[in-house]
Design a protein that fits this description.
The complex is a heterodimer of chains A (282) and B (83). Chain A is of the alpha/beta class and 282 residues long. Chain A contains ten helices and ten strands. In chain A, helix 5 (141-157) links the parallel strand 5 (126-130) and strand 6 (162-166). Chain B has one domain (25-83). In chain B, 22% of the residues lie in helices and 34% in strands. Chain B has one helix at 2-19, and strands at 32-33, 39-42, 47-50, 56-62, 68-74, 77-80. Classes of the chains: A alpha/beta (282), B alpha+beta (83). Strand 10 (280-281) of chain A pairs antiparallel with strand 3 (47-50) of chain B, so a sheet runs across the interface.
Amino acid sequence: MKQKYFKLLIRFFALCLITTHLYAENNESTPANLIRIMPLGDSITYDYRLSDANDPRPTSMRTGYRSHLWYMLQNAGYNADFVGSRIAGEGIIPPFDPDNEGHPGWTASELAINTYDYMINARPNIVLLHIGTNDTSPSIDGINAILNNIDFYERDSGQSVRVLIALPIGGKSAHEIKPFNDELEKLISQRAINGDNITLVDMYRTAGLTSSDFIDSIHPNDTGYRKMAQVWFNALMAPYTPALYTFPSTIVPSNYVRTMYVSEETKSVTFTTEVPDTGLIF
Amino acid sequence: MKHILIFILSTLFLTNCGGGGSSSTSGSNQDVDMVIGQAYTAYSGNKIIKNDEETIIQVTHFDANSESTVVLVEGNATIIRNP
């Protein structure tokens, strides 16, 4: 009788061990579920202040929004790998992934020249693009060139890249930012309608940055960067419904669409369009 | 025989009464001249044509629905229900 109970006990412990092992295996991070995220942009991505020109901080202490975003993603169980050829913020406690592709002072056109190589080297699944603060004209040609180079990478590599692109903060007066943002919104709408996996992130309006969130006339302080991180985080966590973005093209050629707003919350798309001679066909 | 007659007449009467309440799921079949700012429902198969060269329409579409809400923003347009 005792021997029977002993055998049952052994079986019970064996079952516990197997269950524990399987649970651990399922929760282990594997390269397969790692999401490679490239923070791409200028000094606001890298974390460089105007005061650094005279009194430079160690690069190991520069984090921008990246550290805050990293912590948020970790807390949400998101297995992220920040990628890029630059390293900044490796001395921060608690540690985070300091890899990035932030280039202080660069315009969109300057970034575009190198974008293809950055993609090839880092192979990101997602790009967080914040650029345009250093552009002095309202032209969005530089940003279009960056997106073209990401398209070329996708074509050549066979890998798809999701691009989250921000309406940039800082560096422009209100009357300068309006035409730039309008053009950028139009560009992103056109690209999304045509099937690009791209989402506009309204950093300019939704981050809620006030003058107290900036350390100089362009760059946020730590509080400002935390607000930016929250906007990136929300965008990364939001569901993505491609059919909403491509819906306008089902009733009108995409070049007639003037503005487009997609709400993943209500699963709706609102757009304004010129009516072509052939009409809108539902 | 009398019962059968009453049954047939009743059925015809009830059918005719019900006829007035029926409506197409695709809304009225009449074409609609759009008024600026007014919201209309555009169903699958409908067409909007412009009557002014510069005509702008706002369209709102929910992923779960087959129809869309349309608003004339600028110009002049007509919704053709049966193009």
